[in-house]
Design goal:
The protein is an alpha+beta fold. 37% of the residues lie in helices and 25% in strands.
């Protein structure tokens, strides 16, 4: 077992639909399997009356607990409730969200018996992170404390901050956030270190987000040339497109106009969506698949033979959008497609043959398939977390959004343009602007934003602070000079000067102001509740295993050779009924409490003892 002195840093790919966790130990890559033996865990949380289920367990009961099963939380994290993306997606989700009035952020509404509870999206991410922390700790034999967690390259400061806060509330100590394509590039570079410079395009198409990054790799130096993508494009969109087409075909064939997105059809919607998801995956290896969807029709007669070509036709516009973004990335990097040496895939959706064919045709070269797309990002993050010397590997990233301040007209005055290399430590870059015309002031309010819109109201506020100005001068006579520095972890430091005098200590923008103290108190309460539920769940699992064992013992007693001579037919039938009812109880009561389980154990023990007395 690894000793505490050798504690390792895990790498986590916190995906929209699947989460993967890995570590590098003794120069060997370990991708941790979960309890079911799978190397990825569904990013799903289901709240029942007595339990909080995560991953495969949540996936298995989703159709029976639809309104309290939360998924796609990565699409909401760090966003406002009235964000166009949130409002658009809301119509497809069967769980409920509402606006948190103070912060204007979305919250999930969870029913726990007669109690209503509310969770922010980052709390759902925190529960997922707690789960993979537990998986890693169980495997390694000690409590894992540190992690490198990946996010889409185009995540803004609020989304990165929310992810980091989720990790803190999950119990991690040291946390580093890096971009997913950069992590995939590191995983690729593990087996391809060379002194020869190579330009590598990372095509990262996951369940809910899409990123393209181009890196220049030489030896162990990774320099990001450009990143672009779509925070709302992934395999989930392909599944939804197929689901919509299934409903459309059903209505056309049966001369109906049923809107299966309405609440009254919620079960049929989810069953169909699950079939669509399975079909999408099957068509990555098969040319045709059969979809049996008899539950849509009262006479139980509706099925579809779906070919790979038909599926590709349904999603052609989505695939084309991916290729257009490749062109944008090349343009931003000022490169021709012939200058790309290697193409690397990451994310499960990149397995789709049509996507691979389009990439191959665009570049006219083979795609590198030396790394597993599902695991590459977690492996790269793990490698970065476990290097012994920071000089062994050098990462030069870029800003994915411009950073600037608001001028007196409400416009964005850019100081650090999008695509600027980080770390950014140019101490000579100052921005100067004159004050708006008023009589006299003592302090001036400076607002720092990120974004690409001309007007700051359409960008994201990072921080605001006030600086001193000379009291006896009119505003138009004062000049404020702003300097912005960004370190390797994308932490921003802002220095303000008036008339060449540093007026205030530097302002460090490490966290967006997303949370109140009351929010943090609630986060801690929810995290503690999960820990307690996990302890209780372990006891429930043990109790259910005992019920299964006792029920099997009862079955053997019923079927033994001498049971007929010891028991009447009515007694044997009574025990058979108990056996059948117990099996049904196990199937129906996935949310049973420990008290319910113990009661069932006592009932079985009583029956078995009656049998033993007559033996």
């Amino acid at each position: 077992m690894t000793t505490p002195r050798e504690k390792l840093v895990i790498g986590i790919d916190l995906g929209t639909t699947q989460t993967c966790v890995a570590v590098i130990r003794n120069n060997h890559t370990i991708v941790f399997p979960n309890e079911q033996g799978y190397f990825t865990t569904p990013t799903i949380v289901s709240f029942t009356k007595n339990q909080i289920l995560i991953g495969n367990a949540a996936e298995n009961i989703k159709s029976r607990n639809i309104e309290n099963t939360i998924y796609d939380s990565k699409r909401l994290i760090g966003r406002d409730y009235y964000d166009q993306i949130v409002q658009k997606d809301k119509q497809y989700w069967k769980f409920k969200i509402e606006e948190e009035p103070n912060s204007k952020r979305p919250q999930y509404i969870i029913k726990k018996g007669n109690k209503i509870d509310k969770y922010f999206p980052e709390e759902i991410s925190s529960l997922i992170l707690q789960k993979v922390k537990q998986i890693s700790s169980d495997y390694l034999g000690y409590d894992v404390e540190d992690a490198v967690i990946t996010v889409p390259a185009h995540f803004n400061n609020a989304q990165r901050t929310a992810t980091k806060e989720a990790a803190i509330n999950a119990g991690f100590n040291k946390i580093r956030i890096i971009n997913e394509p950069t992590a995939a590039a590191i995983a690729y570079g593990l087996d391809n270190f060379s002194d020869q410079e190579r330009k590598v395009l990372i095509f990262d198409f996951g369940g809910g987000t899409f990123d393209i990054s181009i890196l220049k790799i030489k030896g162990k130096k990774f320099e990001v040339l450009t990143s672009c993508g779509d925070s709302h494009l992934g395999g989930e969109d392909l599944t939804l497109r197929l689901t919509e087409n299934i409903f459309k075909q059903f209505n056309e064939e049966n001369n109906k106009q049923i809107d299966f997105f309405k609440p009254e059809y919620i079960n049929k919607f989810y069953k169909t969506r699950n079939i669509a998801e399975r079909a999408k995956k099957e068509l990555s290896t098969a040319l045709e698949t059969f979809l049996d969807i008899d539950f849509l029709n009262n006479d139980g007669n509706f099925f579809i033979n779906l070919t790979r070509g038909q599926f590709e036709g349904m999603c052609e516009d989505i695939f084309e959008k991916c290729i257009l973004l490749i062109g944008k990335a090349l343009k931003d990097a000022k490169l021709k497609k012939e200058e790309i040496n290697d193409i690397v895939l990451a994310g499960g959706t990149s397995r789709i043959p049509k996507i691979q064919n389009m990439i191959h045709n665009y570049f006219g070269k083979e795609i590198k398939k030396t790394i597993n797309p599902d695991e590459a990002i977690a492996v790269g993050a793990a490698y970065l977390g476990n290097i012994k010397d920071n000089n062994i590997i050098e990462i030069i990233d870029i800003t994915n959004y411009s950073i600037g301040i608001e001028d007196h007209e409400g416009k964005m005055q850019i100081i650090v343009p999008r695509g600027t290399l980080i770390p950014q430590k140019d101490k000579k870059t100052f921005f100067k602007f004159f004050m708006p015309k008023h009589d006299y002031i003592k302090r001036y309010n400076v607002k720092v934003y990120e974004g690409e819109n001309v007007y700051v109201k359409n960008n994201h506020l990072l921080e605001q602070f006030s600086v001193s100005v000379e009291e006896k001068k009119k505003k138009e006579e004062n000049i404020i000079k702003i300097k912005i520095e960004i370190d390797k972890d994308s932490i921003i430091k802002v220095t303000a000067m008036t008339n060449d005098i540093v007026s205030e200590p530097p302002i460090t923008i490490e966290k967006s102001k997303l949370y109140t103290e009351e929010d943090m108190k609630t986060f801690r309460s929810h995290a503690q509740e999960f820990k307690e539920k996990e302890k209780e769940k372990t006891k429930i699992i043990v109790a259910k295993e005992k019920i299964v064992s006792l029920n099997e013992e009862l079955r053997k007693s019923i079927n033994s050779n001498d049971s007929g001579s010891k028991f009447s037919r009515n007694e044997i039938q009574k025990m058979q009924n108990i056996y059948n009812k117990t099996n049904k109880w196990l199937n129906d009561n996935y949310d049973s409490s420990l008290e319910d389980c113990n009661s069932k154990i006592n009932e079985l023990l009583k029956s078995i003892n009656e049998y033993n007395k007559k033996k």
